[in-house]
From TrEMBL:
One Pfam family linked to the record: Hydrolase
A GO molecular-function descriptor: metal ion binding
Matching NCBIfam families: HAD-SF-IA-v3, PRK14988.1
Protein name, UniProt field: GMP/IMP nucleotidase
GO cellular component, one term: cytosol
Listed Gene3D superfamilies: HAD superfamily/HAD-like (3.40.50.1000)
CDD domains in alphabetical order: HAD_like
Keywords carried by this UniProt record: Metal-binding
Amino acid sequence: MVNWSTLDTVFLDMDGTLLDLHFDSHFWLEHLPKRYAEQYNLHPQQAKETLIAMIMAERGSLNWYCTDYWSERLSVDINQLKAEVSDRIGYRPHVPDFLATLRRSGLRSVIVTNCHPDPLALKLSRTGLDKHVDAIISSHELGKPKEDPDFWRDLGRKIAYRQQHTLMVDDSFPVLESARRAGIGQCLAILEPDSKQAPNPQHPDIPGIRHFDEVMPALRLHQALPSK
């Protein structure tokens, strides 16, 4: 599923890959509509339908992920509202063990996320995730989301990497397809990003796993092999 012996860099998505997507799903689909309804004296269902329509219109763009954009657009403090439910932020199964094994293997681990820097800081403060990887890059630093084909070129100017010796792990099929078109050597899909939702179907061309324990045996074997 993953040929670890050809790799020197592992790019990792954060939300839905390392962290449980339930936090974000709950926030955008439940908590924000509730608080928006309270602020504007709307029926909760009306608020939810209005917000979902607005959000879906931005899907795939950087605005989709930008808390500054949504705070201004909705006249609410998105970061404050996220902090209200930050107790829901947490790791997906087997992630700490996977990251520790990845580090012991000598492979470079880099979080490559569409998360805006403000909620990113909140998530790092709750999890300490930054202590377990070598670097973190937000797409907001590059001015374009991972879905953009030019993202991967610009990422190379931020952090040098060899495309054919890089693995991208993400729960978003559009992101993985974008990475593959950009020449990333290997891609791996996370099929169960949200602990409260059913797994996603398998992609026809990109291998997928539900949890990292499925690739841990091969990674440990790679770790145990003598250096070339």
